[in-house]
Amino acid sequence: MFATLLKRELMLARRNWVGILIPLFFFVMVVSLFPFAVSPEAEFLQQIAAGVVWVAALLSVLLSLDMFYRSDYQDGSLEQLLIMASPTQVALSKVTAHWLVTGLPLVLMSPVLAGLMHLNYSPDANVATSHTAVMMLSLLLGTPTMCLLGAIGMSLSLAASRNGMLVAVMILPLYVPILIFGSAVITASLTNSGYNAQLAILGAILLFALVLTPFAAGRALKVAVS
């Protein structure tokens, strides 16, 4: 049943390709404007790259959260889905599809933006750096967690008429640890320090969210449509 639900979500997402491109376009625009707004110097951009990329990714995920349940809730499809499958399966399928069409493109686009922010810049031309791979790994662990937490916020505020601001208020405090440790991974890599501990914490947060959030989001969905 989960595979069927996931296939349905991906088919719906393909039809709404414009809505998928908006968060990605926002992510690219926010990061690419920083060299024009602050300074084009490579050393300065490298210092702020971690925070800029992660804040832009966080805001892009927030921007895309309305894609979770809104259309299915408005046309009554969500009630039928909850009858056909368990609420946990419905929530997990939507989170998985949401990350595949919004979170994963952010990860794949990040190397281009890393080059724009001179993330691999080194004063010594003979020294090879691979900070971009570390950044992609941190985003690969952090963006699914943000999608999972966002599913809870959207489930709780589904019946609200203006749920976008409500979700932001509820979810942003939960995003702060992900933002801190995600940017800390890149900063540690830039300073040639160990970043395994920060990556381990991001992975632990992801596993914790993967175990608890689909059940919590499913229960909130059931309450919202009842």
- Could you estimate the helical fraction of the residues in percent? over 70%
Number of strands: 0
Low-confidence runs? none
- Mean pLDDT equals 83
How much of the sequence lies in strands comes to under 5%
Can you characterise this structure?
By secondary structure, the chain is an all-alpha fold. It has helices spanning 2-15, 17-37, 42-64, 70-75, 77-84, 87-116, 131-156, 163-190, 196-225. Helix 1 (2-15) crosses helix 6, helix 3 (42-64) packs parallel to helix 7 (131-156) and helix 7 packs antiparallel against helix 8. It is elongated and about 55 Å long. The two termini are 22 Å apart. The model has no long low-confidence stretch (mean pLDDT 83).
Layout of strands and helices, then pairs:
Blueprint: H1 2-15, H2 17-37, H3 42-64, H4 70-75, H5 77-84, H6 87-116, H7 131-156, H8 163-190, H9 196-225
Task: Throw out a few tags for this protein.
0% strand; 226 residues; mainly alpha
